[in-house]
Amino acid sequence: MKWKYQRKNRNPAGWTLFKNRHLAQCAIWVYLTLAAMPASARKFAVSTNGNDSQAGTAELPLRTIQRAAELALPGDVILVHQGIYRERINPPRGGLSDHQRISYQAAAGEKVAIKGSEVISNWVEIQPGVWQTTLPNSFFAGFNPYTNLIRGDWFNPQKRQHHTGAVYLNGNWLAEAATLQEVLKPVPTNQLWFATEDATNTLIWARFGTANPHAAFVEINARQTVFYPAKTGVNFLTVRGFTLSQAATPWAPPTAEQIGLIGTHWSRGWIIESNTISYSICAGVTLGKYGDEWDNRAESAEGYVGTICRALTNGWDKATVGHHLVRANDISHCEQGGIVGSLGGAFSRIVENNIHDIYTRRRFSGAEMAGIKLHGAVDVEISRNHIYRCWRGIWLDWMAQGTRLSANLLHDNSADDLFFEVDHGPILADDNLLLSPTSLKSWSQGCAFAHNLFAGKIDTKPKDDRQTPFLQPHATALVGLTNNPCGDSRFINNIFAGKADLSSYDQSVLPVQMAGNVFLNGARPAAVETNPEVQTNLVLRPKIFQRGASWFLEANLDFAAAGKISRPLVTTELLGRTAISQMEFENADGSGVTVVHDYFSNPWPENKLPAGPFANLNKTTTEWQVWPISN
Fold this sequence. Notes:
631 residues; 13-stranded parallel β-sheet; 5 helices; 50 strands; disordered N terminus
């Protein structure tokens, strides 16, 4: 605190009185702050051999994580020991700051699983390969996944009903049948389930194929979520080192509360890291919106504008929401998205995650399926992630502004690796390996692509008439709405090795900037690029393959370093301002950006910049380990 010297208090007595009054105020403030804090950080131990009536010490551990959550205060650590915990954690409070968190973590070297399922063993065989169980409705404690339908904005059930429940055989889920007759058909290898409910019981039929459920491990969904606060504003939590699985999650569109297997629920400052997250009926990790009376009643562009305006009155602000870190998780087998977030994921970092096998069963569809699907990705970093076998890889939908995607590996995604939908930027995508049949779909402006390897097609759209927002720089305040004409894109120092056709940008309404690119395999440059390097005699077919736990790229890229053209260093000054949002490409703190490192974080050579994502290129290197990323 700076002492304030007032002219009327120049005499020593007056100054002493003024100073003492402020000292007293400071003392009261310090006392009240310390009184609200625990005397010292505590550790609560949780064990499958514990008891919730105990103190939670290492010698007298608790039995449930939820009981520890009820006791923990800012600064405390909840240490969970090996075993399977079948519960939903609803943290009642969070920490006070990034340095005074409440941390939930698995004990070092111990395997801790938290599941939204229960084991079922009372199966009765009613015909060869088909089994039935009967459970009282009270078993589900007020939430029955076998009567709870998947529904909501932008959801397509494909002419049948779908429930949030599932049946798991040895850890893998069976598909839900549309009718009981489908389960009863004599097809012994096709594994399905079906359920009905009467006034007192829930009946589940399952065709386990040739498996006997009494000799196997059979579970069913019993909880909607695994780790999710019921109220908003539970800030500064850490969730680390767990296996989280088998949740009966609802559909999570951008216009509704987004409940994931684990989710932040309109809070600030979570760290979700080093977890294995799998088997969510809809979303795995949600960084999303609160719920209100408009949930699933706003399926239109105009409706989502209303959602944004309401969110601004409900605390969508840099000081209150977002700033999460989602790092080093393995996320798979979620039928909507691996990581989703509407507005609540702003100012966050999503880094070093392995996201795969998203939307694999495809029993239903909708406009939300992706490895990462964010609305309002303001000042978000998405870097060094591995995303594959998804529908879409990374989908930035509305208000991606100040967003950077760097050194991500994407391949074997069905629709496209990147989809930028009706954003106005700036978005910078640099040093990415985009190896799926379609590398990029862009219906946005204010985008810059630098030093990427595009192995697939590039799709554009001449114009999208939806009126979508742009915001104040590094903030959530709404500036205006505009439609989405093609253009205002920059492609600098990339390699195009597939069916990419940048000539679609020749008809752009807004200006485009292109330089230093290399085109192979018939890829076509835009007319605006005055000196493209077109390699007509070189065919490049990048190959991605797995060896053990690592992934490798096989390709001969030495031509990119031996090219004849001089390439510019990609900087804020080079990229200029975006046409609509009138922002510069810069870091989240407002400082200038320079693409100074390659995919492996190696610096670019000083003498001559290569095209593409690798700095060190030579004729003897044709294979790189690209996941996990190593220098």
